[in-house]
Design brief:
Strand order of the largest sheet: 22-3-26-25
Oligomer: single chain
Number of helices: 23
Distance between the termini: 33 Å
Strand content: 15-25%
Structural class: alpha+beta
Radius of gyration: 36 Å
Helix content: 40-55%
Length: about 700
């Protein structure tokens, strides 16, 4: 029952013997606990506007996330590193903004966070009476005040980092957002103009000469034209990080039918011993299994396998299988059956023998003390008074030793404690010895009540992964090595793929600090290789789960404007349309009237009614903002316009005089409010990214991970 676990499981009374340090004096006066103090380590993994982010700080953040999700989820660092980096960069940028603006929290602010009208959920849980459901704020304040002496403990620092600091960060962020939101403004003249414009519509006649009407599939676009287009539109072709691209192909190393049969035969060889053993845990430990033995009963309704109906019908000691599930051959053995509750209320008195790895009381003395306490209770002494006077559990001694637990918390409790409260009957009074860190010692436990009792089964599972044999793996590795030996450049890569009837795949936009390559998976050392070698280098066979890959480096795209190769798919169609537009204007548009131009272009005059200024769409044609804009240009009312180079073709239009409704003040005020709200929404969705875009950020992650 560790402190962090206690909060996570909402048995939070255990926790607050340590949270006192997180109160005002701790937060406002002790700079050692502030995150800024972590920027002193020399192992710099990045800089944000000259401010260091250290590896110590980075690893602490990763450890913190793992601690939050709990020990049951083993999240690889590769899944966490990109998100942690982005989060730390944003925190540094925000703190820099707070400093510029003079934003800070006072002791009163912190008091409001913890004890105001909306205290944090974890605080409510800890100090809410289980019987009345009422949050006791006075008790919370008193408990904090009484425990300030523990402000320097290691666990207290962890509580601050996990629970208090996020509350502070959130409040500062809210204050910052409110300042930015309050700065948004829309002048009344602009709101009136927008309101007026949005009421306007027009009827037009037009001629559309689509680009696709030119049967010209051989328009060439040179590399220089791509470069020129990029330079005219740099915002659309900016590369913020260096990236590289590869071509690759794969060779299957998955287990074949012979491999599967071999694993099945091995599992069947172990089956007899599994049935006969009297100690399934020791047997599985000796022969190995992919499914660890827990010794915990599971509710029948929660045993999730397609074979559950058959397994649950078995008597104790019998097995089911082998069967295939989740890539394993498995045999399941029924160890025990029991009706158990999903929640319990218990109370206990703890006499500690150890605390944080240090002996606090001799074992024999502790045993005599707990025996004396039990005899006193049996003679009628008050359990509540004895718990208050003698129990070494600060989380329960003030509550008569009472705890409420759900069965989902079983694995988080010490085994002896959990088995007593969930597996023994109501009315049980029992001394158990626990060896579990801060709660090592003798517990006297009484089971007060149990609810929602249902059938449960304890299972042992012998499972072996269906893996490729060494022969299968060697065959795939040899094929990949033979392929790699024939490659000298990209052309030979394509040729070699054709010979073995496969197709080369591509992976692009690979960053130096990435861990995963799309289509292949996680392989940090392979990404290092991609950046340690020049374009054109061919890899040796690289092993991934169930495959070997061979790759060739095809592109190095430095920070700045895209390379011509990367820009071409985006820019080429626009350049081709510009060329087509020039040809259309020079050869298809003759005369001064719509009828003349219709004749010269071979197109008909079209009609579009109620074209709206508020929407840049032409019915049937699509999105054409230039055409719609000129429709409302007073200089062209009842006149034929010059050629308009649009998205889908070249247009010539003749528009009537625009019509609109009278604008009233109420509509203007609504527009003004709407525009401010739109500004706020736009800022909220993009301001963090904009801060990053404007910052000088140096990323050295690839040198450390």
């Amino acid at each position: 029952m560790s402190i962090i676990q206690g909060i996570r499981d909402k048995g939070a009374w255990i926790v607050f013997g340590i949270i006192a340090l997180a109160l005002i004096a701790f937060i406002m006066q002790d700079a050692a606990f502030r995150r800024g103090g972590l920027f002193s380590n020399s192992n710099v993994i990045g800089k944000v506007n000259g401010q260091n982010i250290t590896r110590t700080q980075f690893d602490d953040e990763i450890a913190l996330i793992k601690d939050r999700v709990g020990p049951d989820r083993n999240i690889p660092n590769a899944q966490l590193i990109p998100g942690v980096w982005n989060e730390l960069v944003q925190k540094v940028l925000l703190n820099q903004q707070y400093k510029k603006l003079g934003l800070a929290l006072t002791p009163n602010d912190l008091d409001d966070i913890l004890f105001g009208a909306n205290p944090p959920q974890w605080l409510r849980v800890a100090f809410t009476d289980q019987n009345t459901g009422v949050f006791d704020i006075n008790k919370a304040r008193a408990y904090f005040a009484s425990l300030k002496s523990q402000r320097n403990s290691k666990e207290a620092m962890k509580i601050f980092t996990v629970y208090i600091q996020p509350e502070i960060d959130q409040r500062l962020f809210q204050n910052y957002q409110q300042l930015i939101s309050a700065s948004n403004y829309c002048p009344s003249w602009l709101a009136r103009k927008m309101t007026t414009d949005n009421t306007m519509d027009n009827n037009i006649q037009y001629i559309s000469i689509p680009y696709k009407s030119l049967n010209m599939n051989n328009i060439s676009v040179t590399d220089q034209e791509i470069k020129d287009y990029e330079e005219k539109h740099p915002a659309s072709f900016q590369q913020t990080d260096e990236t590289r691209s590869i071509l690759y192909t794969t060779f299957n190393a998955s287990p074949n039918s012979d491999d599967s049969l071999s694993i099945l035969a091995h599992v069947n060889e172990l089956k007899t011993g599994f049935i006969e053993t009297k100690n399934s845990e020791l047997y599985l430990d000796r022969v190995g299994t992919e499914t660890p033995y827990t010794g915990v009963y599971e509710f029948n309704k929660k045993i999730s396998t397609q074979y559950s109906p058959a397994i649950l019908k078995l008597p104790i000691g019998q097995v089911y299988g082998p069967f295939v599930e989740a890539g394993n051959y498995s045999i399941v053995k029924v160890i025990g059956k029991k009706d158990i509750p999903d929640s319990v209320v218990c109370r206990h008195i703890l006499i500690k023998t150890m605390s944080n790895g240090e002996a606090v009381l001799d074992d024999s003395i502790a045993k005599k003390r707990i025996d004396s306490i039990v005899r006193a209770i049996q003679k009628g002494a008050s359990f509540d008074q004895l718990a208050l006077q003698y129990s070494d559990d600060p989380g329960s001694k003030n509550k008569g030793g009472i705890y409420h637990f759900s069965y989902s918390q079983f694995s988080n409790l010490s085994k002896e404690f959990a088995e007593t409260i969930f597996y023994d009957k109501v009315g049980t009074g029992k001394i158990v010895k626990v060896n579990n860190g801060a709660y090592s010692g003798y517990h006297y436990i009484q089971v007060l009540s149990q609810k929602n009792i249902a059938p449960a089964t304890q299972l042992a599972v012998l499972s072996k992964s269906i893996l490729a044999s060494q022969a299968t793996d060697n065959s795939a590795s040899a094929a990949a090595a033979n392929f790699a030996s024939t490659i000298t450049d990209v052309n030979s890569f394509y040729t070699a793929c054709q010979k073995i009837h496969t197709f080369p795949l591509s992976a692009s936009d690979i960053k130096k600090e990435d861990f995963v390559i799309n289509g292949l998976g996680e392989k940090r050392d392979f990404i290092r290789w991609i950046y340690d070698n020049p374009v054109g280098t061919v890899s040796d066979p690289i092993e991934f789960p169930n495959i070997y890959a061979v790759a060739i480096i095809t592109e190095d795209n430095p920070k700045g404007l895209y390379s011509v190769t990367k820009a071409r798919p985006y820019a080429q169609s626009y350049i081709e349309n510009d060329k087509k537009a020039k040809i259309i204007v020079e050869t298809k548009i003759k005369g001064t009237s719509l009828s003349d131009i219709a004749t010269s272009s071979g197109q008909s005059v079209q009609q579009a009614d109620k074209v709206s200024f508020a929407s840049p769409f032409i019915p049937v044609i699509g999105n054409e903002p230039k055409v719609v804009g000129i429709t409302f240009n007073k200089n062209y009312t009842n006149k034929v316009t010059p050629p308009i180079i649009g998205n889908t073709g070249v247009f010539v239009i003749q528009a009537n005089k625009p019509a609109g409704n009278k604008v009233i003040d109420e509509n203007t005020m609504l527009m003004q409010k709407k525009m401010v709200e739109s500004q706020i929404t736009g800022y909220q969705s993009a301001f963090l990214q904009n801060l990053q875009n404007a910052a000088d950020i140096k990323n050295y992650l690839s040198e450390f991970y």
